[in-house]
Specification:
The protein has 173 residues and is an alpha/beta fold. It contains 7 helices and 5 strands. Helix 5 links the parallel strand 2 (84-90) and strand 3 (115-121).
């Protein structure tokens, strides 16, 4: 029994709360169906799917994307970077990680040329997970000139991470 609710047979308390927690994350972060409606509302009825895709999503430069890193390219992409680096440790099975991933993809364009966004899949690069003593997901670490300058652990409101990025950028100016 969990509070006033009975846990279904074969379920754990975490499984019974996962969906409500994700819904809460979506509400707190301000994402929902309105994003999709806004995107599709702008597409003309008389356009081909290729034309609609070309007008909705312009080409993205390498600076404006989240770069997947592993132990082979970590030094080059993170430790030797000239820009502020936002490093996201994530896993495919981690639902809050997917929320963070979407934020970073959005911000990669907004902060292009000022911030580098990179991600490490812990299931593929466990040695980095251990090296940086990541004990919970999602975990976002900020690096400047190869040194860790900040860390956010767990699901956070969209503004928490954005405010921290902006704070470090203002300090660098």
């Amino acid at each position: 029994m969990l509070g006033n609710k009975t846990i279904p047979s074969g379920s754990t308390p975490l499984q019974t709360t996962a969906v409500p927690l994700m819904m809460l994350a979506v509400i707190l972060l301000g994402w929902g169906c309105q994003d999709q409606a806004t995107e599709t509302a702008g597409a003309s009825v008389n356009t081909t799917p290729q034309e609609a895709q070309a007008t909705e999503h312009p080409p993205v430069s390498k600076e404006a994307e989240v770069i997947a890193v592993n132990s082979d390219n970590f030094d080059q992409e993170v430790l030797q970077a000239e820009l502020l680096v936002v490093l996201d440790f994530w896993a495919e099975w981690c639902d809050p990680c997917k929320v963070i991933e979407r934020m970073l993809e959005e911000w990669a364009e907004e902060y292009a040329g000022r911030v580098k966004f990179v991600s490490v899949n812990i299931d593929e690069s466990g040695e980095l997970y251990d090296q940086y003593k990541v004990r919970a997901l999602p975990c976002v670490i900020l690096f400047e000139h190869g040194k860790e300058i900040g860390r956010l652990i767990g699901a956070r409101a969209k503004t928490d991470l954005k405010d921290q990025i902006d704070q470090y950028l203002q300090g660098a100016e």
